[in-house]
Amino acid sequence: MNSKNIGNSFRDHVLNLLKSKFLDAHTEGKAAWKNADIIFSMMELGKRIKVAVECKNYNRALNTTDFSKILSDYHVALENGEVNLLLVISNKSIEATSRQFIEKARTLRFMTIADLERWLVGLQPYVEALADEFISDEIHQYYVEGRFEGVEGTAFENVQEWIYSPMIDDTGLAILGGYGLGKSSLAKRLASEQASRYLNDPENERLPILLPLGQVVHETELAGLFGKHFTSRYSLESYSYKALMHLNSAGRLLIILDGFDEMKHAMTEHDFRSNFREFNKLRIPGSKVLLLGRPNAFTSESSKLLIRGLSKIGDQFFQNSDFPAWKERKLCFFNVTEQEIFLNGFLKSKNTVMTNTSVRLSRIAEVIQDIDDEILQRPVQTRIVGLLAADPNYTFKGTSRFRLYQDFVRQVIQRDQEKRARSFIPAEHRRLFLCRLAWWSWTRPGIQGTFIREEVPNYLLDGLSDGQAIDILAKRTEYLVSSLTEEKDSNFLYFAHRSFHEFLVSSYITEFDNLKYGDVIELGSAINDEIADFLLESKEDRYLIEIYRVLSEKSVLSQNPRISKLLSSCNYLIKNISEKTNAQITPLDVLIMRNSESKQENTENTRNWLGKIIVSGKNASADCAGLLFFEMLYLNPENQAEIASEFLSKCWQRVLSGLNEVDEDGNSHTENMGVAGNGILFIRPSKLGLLGGALQKQTRKIKLLKDNLVLINAREIYAILNNGIKKLGYSEMEERKEKNLIELRLSSITNGMSEINRKKLEEIYAVKGDEFKLERGRERSKKKRDLNDDEI
After folding, report:
1. Measuring CA to CA, which residue among 427, 448, 544, 428 is closest to residue 495?
2. Same domain, 47 and 61
3. pLDDT in tens, 642-686
4. Which end of the chain is more exposed for a tag (fewer CB within 10 A), N or C?
């Protein structure tokens, strides 16, 4: 690019910045005989003045000679009032002598391009606060640099390399990591470092913006998102969104969007995708946009679209222009060395006793030996361990994550109680309030986890000690004072870490009692993976027994796979279900037993148990068992024929136990054991169900000279059963799109049947035609049904 083009580019950048605030700004304005680079007007103390702008993009600093010449060129225009002020904008700062010259010149002003940006965008106070944010946080005393999976160097170093990458299309970096891996700390560290660099070298460094997404509750446009952040939290009166967006297009910003997963909890999938469209508008050539959050905020399909930019049509993926791909990086867990470094720094900063190196290292070695490595892999949990380890009497042997958080919360409350004014409220009442507060703020509509004091409902305080409060407002204020909650600007409160919030929600759930169906629905919507893990580790059964009671009374299945998993972990329920007869088993029981550890560990036992339910369970239970049995056919493709044969064998044993000599209208068909002359089988309704329909519609006879075969359409059988179970509220099973047609020998199906049933099925197979014709018969008396079932 030649010098003229460079100068024009610099001038255009200045013009666009000025236009964001001064709409009449234009180039090549006439001032007497001189063509100014830019002319605009502005109000000054109630009077409109005209400003001429000279843009100087030199490879050196301007000196007094330069300013004298510029001022001389505009002398006539300034004297006759065609312009009132002359503004010189340069890419470099000037020396003290030049500043003295400008101060003496009444109509001359000077700004660097960085000065102009700060003036028009109005973010100087914000950047100064951001530069201090990490250093002023105690975490900097023991912070350990994170790492990315499969990448050398620290996460900080890798992001720095990306920020300074000259590739103009390398605009978006997504940092993904589970809870407590240090995403927000990394975001704060990066923003604070970049703010310091910008303040030291504003002409060459990007201006950082750290935007927490936890307060985004619905589809939001960029202007509203940035405006709310800067004007409500930082009260920046001169903030300009238009100027900010121009800086972004000029490659002058580093935008950090932290916590997209927290945004997801408060909105629909449609709104979530719409917000990603807005984020992608920031990603123009030369920009740098950093995105951080938990990967489990996405479904598999959403992840491919929103992060990788891939849409799916049929079985094919293609690049979606509305969703450009982000460069992905995943944060690593702490390794043992990082755990030790973190604990060493933390204990040294937190406890005077631990300043003794030998005492500190001995305690760290004890912790590493006694505690599960998985707990120490996450920085947030390592910090909790550090707080507990500061007490030399605390033992970590056999500690689960649930107990770790439980003891941490108790210790925090105990410390709060040591303050005399708070000792009048029992510690258990404080814990109960925190659990109630956590559940309310987690499940209420709108922003999840953030709330204003005045919004906290009084019923959360019901039954709790008044302490020394004289009224309900004083009582609420006293209970809200906790080391587990922190206050943002503008009176916003939130839990100090999201995992603390999730633990308290799980603690609240374990104390559920007298549930109604609506409560279970709300619970299903509230539980995420982390809360489910806390609940599994709690080993509490009471709330699960309550959920089971409610679902059983409604004769429905859980709509949430996490609740199904939790129910399957309850030993009391497993024991209770295992003592039921096959006829007493419900569809809910089938799912619970199928997902229990005892069944998952032994596939053969699972097949045997499900097979018994298929043969002699009630229709809905048998259909559910059939679906789960049939699922194994897809999970074990090498044994498809064996599993399919066993499945059909169980289905036919069920159907044969329901053969009736009377059709639905009461007409007798005594010949051929309930088989009419045209080969129709009349089956009692209690033995037909979806399984009978699947046999009729999706199996066919193939009679050969040397062999008798049965052809089954596996995909359609699976679809019939899956659609039926969905009506009971269960939607966890995947849709199967494979075209599976499986040929089976009749002998493989009859193998294992009783002699009577084998002969019956062979006679039915011998009937002319390739279909198995099953029709609804008339139900027999209970006494006859019981006799027939006992034979089977």
Report:
1. 448
2. yes
3. 999 999 999 999 988 887 655 555 554 444 444 445 667 778 888
4. N
User: In CATH, what number is assigned to the domain containing residue 257?
Assistant: 3.40.50
Please count the structural domains in the chain: 4
Residue 111 lies in a domain: yes
Helix (H, G, I), strand (E, B) or coil at 150: coil
The span from the CA of 658 to the CA of 166, in Å, is 75
* Closest by Cα among 41, 254, 18, 236 to 117: 18
User: Exposed/middle/buried for 260, CB within 10 Å: 0-12, 13-18, 19+?
Assistant: buried
Q: Hey, what are 306's tokens?
A: 């929103």
H or E element that contains 75: helix 75-79
Residue 142's φ and ψ, nearest 5 degrees, are -135, 15
Q: Are residues 323 and 176 in the same domain?
A: yes
Domain with 91, as residue range(s), is 3-120
Neighbours of 108 (CB within 10 A): 19
- By DSSP bridging, strand 708-713 and strand 699-703 are antiparallel
Same domain, 325 and 344: no
The angle, 0 to 180 degrees and rounded to 10, between the axes of the packed helices 113-121 and 241-249 is 140
Task: Answer yes or no: do 650 and 728 share one domain.
Answer: yes
Q: Closest Cα to residue 117, out of 256, 244, 282, 283?
A: 244
Burial 264-295 (b: 16+ CB within 10 A, else e): bbbbeeebbbebbebbbebbbebbbbbbbbbe
pLDDT beneath 50: ranges in the chain: 420, 668-676, 782-792
- Assign residue 533 a region: left if phi > 0, alpha if psi is -120 to 50, beta otherwise? alpha
**For the stretch 183-210, what's the b/e string if a residue is b when 16 or more beta carbons lie within 10 angstroms of its beta carbon?**
bbbbbbbbbbbbbbbbbeebeebbbbbb
pTM listed for this prediction: 0.72
Positive or negative, the Cα torsion across 185, 190, 193, 194? negative
**Three-state DSSP class for 776?**
strand
The model's pLDDT over 367-385, given as tens digits with 9 standing for 90+, comes to 888 888 888 899 988 988 9
CB atoms within 10 A of CB 378: 22
Cα gap 473→267, rounded to integer Å: 31
Look at strands 327-330 and 172-176 and give their pairing. parallel
